[in-house]
Design brief:
With 171 residues, the chain is mainly alpha-helical. 46% of the residues lie in helices and 5% in strands. The chain is built from seven helices and four strands; from the N terminus they run ααβαββαβααα. The strands form two sheets. The chain has a two-stranded parallel sheet with strand order 1-2. Helix 3 links the parallel strand 1 and strand 2. The two termini are 30 Å apart.
Length: 171
């Protein structure tokens, strides 16, 4: 999920991710709860982030499509739900989380997430960057290695949704 405030200056990396087949979802503009925001303020945050994602998609020759939103801090109000529904965005929540903003042990985070993950799990690990949540680099590496050992394969939310669709399974 992309926070809109992180788009500027990171366009090249984001475009590279898109060209490699990754998808970007909307996480608003900043990492804070929007649950008490006015409808207008929440709409602005969602629309601005979606426009940034669509601009990146267009720049690499992909169709403009934002399907997913994740409510920051896991807080979703009725107003937020209404706005998301109007914009055909689905709020995505996780079932596997190791509190990586607070727990700073990447090895533990990766092993814990892999141990708790099941087929169809949505795993949440925060994006590391140099100088900020660097332990998540190790957490991601450990997680991916452990998932491979257990026979689980990471997929995008769109792919997970497709696999969960009973009509897809019949074809």
């Amino acid at each position: 999920m992309l926070m809109g405030k992180f788009t500027a200056g990171n366009e090249s990396g984001l475009k590279s991710l898109l060209m490699d087949g990754h998808e970007l979802g909307n996480h608003g503009l900043v990492d804070r709860s929007y649950a008490k925001d006015s409808r207008e303020d929440f709409e602005k945050a969602v629309d601005e982030c979606s426009q940034q994602i669509k601009g990146l998609q267009t720049s690499v020759g992909l169709p403009e499509c934002v399907r997913w939103f994740r409510a920051p801090h896991g807080k979703l109000s009725n107003t937020m739900s209404t706005v998301l529904q109007e914009r055909d965005l689905t709020n995505v929540m996780c079932d596997t989380y190791a509190c990586c903003p607070l727990i700073q042990d990447g090895d533990f985070i990766g092993r814990f997430l892999a141990r708790e993950a099941r087929h169809g799990s949505i795993i949440l690990i925060h994006m590391p960057e140099h100088g900020f949540r660097e332990w998540c680099f190790q957490g991601i590496e450990e997680l991916l290695g452990q998932l491979q050992l257990s026979g689980l394969k990471p997929v995008s939310i769109s792919k997970l949704s497709e696999l969960a669709n009973p009509l897809h399974l019949e074809s």
